[in-house]
Design goal:
11 helices; 35% helix; alpha+beta; Aminopeptidase; 339 residues
């Protein structure tokens, strides 16, 4: 007999299950629950499946509510991976339970990386982009880049761009990130979100910032995930585009990943054939489709907010004109409602 219930306790049993599960990831870990709750006040019905008392499946869920954007039930918001872990029966039961507790949500979305056993609808709108590395040998990895890419990385270094890593780089990273997102016309997570995430993940979180002298001009927040490292958030200031600080930044992250023995660098998710996709593809990378699944309780097609459509497209243009002092605090309030 399979029982589905909301998980409790200190998360140690949950994390142990995630570590041993096929396709378990850093993004499934219990620590995210506190980040979601403390950053945005989201309800977090993290589900577990038990068979005769034994833990056989887990599904992290977050209820994202906003007066502006609506109500979503997501695994997991703000990142690319979530979805149920466990055997086939547990996966199906967890997915069915998630659909059954929508409770007014316009959409249930489970962001699995690989196909799962469920009756929910597969939606293939996003991919992640991967670059294989030579573990322990950055020079060999670097030689695998095409000559144009190598020259761009070297140019930024010749211009004096240096990259620093550490927990103490969160504030500098966020300064760049907030301005970059404002320029794109999008609200951004506040610094407190990244502070909490860095503290929750510990050594699994890498924060790197590219500097010109003492001025931060590009930054990235990456997460160790098994045998790979994913750069989940990255930004560069437009006014320094001529010296390509983002190339030095990514080069430094890839170097660090090689030196620490990782076999894969993950550039994170994007929309196929977008500008972001083209940037990631130039590193000699390969695409991996993401297996996201949806359930719309109303039966009508639904999707999270898209900044390129309708009223959101107009909002983007308005947002780009806001001063950072306004866009930063306002964006930190809004972004929690966009899964």
């Amino acid at each position: 007999m399979l029982e589905i219930r909301e998980a409790g306790g200190d998360g140690s049993a949950w994390n142990a299950f995630v570590e041993g599960a096929a396709h378990g990831s850093t993004f499934h870990r219990w620590e995210w629950r506190g980040v979601y709750r403390n950053s945005y006040g989201h309800a977090t019905p993290y589900l577990e499946a038990r068979r005769e008392g034994q833990l056989v499946g887990v599904l992290p869920l977050v209820r994202v509510r906003s007066l502006v954007f609506g109500h979503y039930l997501v695994s997991s918001p703000f990142v690319s991976y979530g979805g149920p872990l466990g055997d086939a029966e547990a996966q199906r039961a967890l997915c069915a339970h998630a659909a059954g507790i929508a409770n007014g949500a316009k959409l249930v979305e489970l962001r699995a990386r690989q196909p799962i056993d469920t009756d929910l609808t597969l939606v293939s709108r996003k991919i992640t982009v991967l670059r294989d590395l030579v573990p322990g040998d950055y020079d060999a990895t670097f030689k695998g880049f095409d000559s144009k890419l190598r020259s761009q990385v070297r140019r930024a270094e010749r211009e004096g761009v240096t990259v620093r890593f550490g927990r103490d780089q969160v504030a500098a990273f966020h300064r760049v990130f907030a301005e970059h997102m404002r320029d794109l016309g999008s609200p951004a997570h506040g610094q407190a979100f990244f502070e909490r995430l860095a503290d929750a993940l510990g050594d699994r979180a890498w924060i790197g910032v590219a500097y010109l002298g003492d001025v931060p001009i590009a930054g990235g927040f990456a997460i160790e995930n098994g045998g790979e490292v994913e750069i989940s958030w990255a930004s560069a200031l437009r006014r320094y585009a001529k010296i390509a600080p983002n190339m030095a930044l990514y080069g430094a992250f890839i170097r660090r990943a090689c030196e620490r023995g990782f076999a894969v660098f993950n550039f994170g998710r994007c929309t196929p054939e977008s500008g972001t996709h083209k940037f990631k593809r130039q590193w000699g990378s390969r695409d991996e489709p993401l297996a996201w699944y949806q359930h719309s309780p109303s039966g009508a097609p639904s999707a999270p907010p898209n900044p390129d459509q309708g009223a959101f497209a107009l909002a983007v243009k308005v947002w780009q004109r806001l001063p950072i002092a306004v866009a930063g605090p306002l964006g930190a309030r809004l972004i929690g409602g966009i899964p």
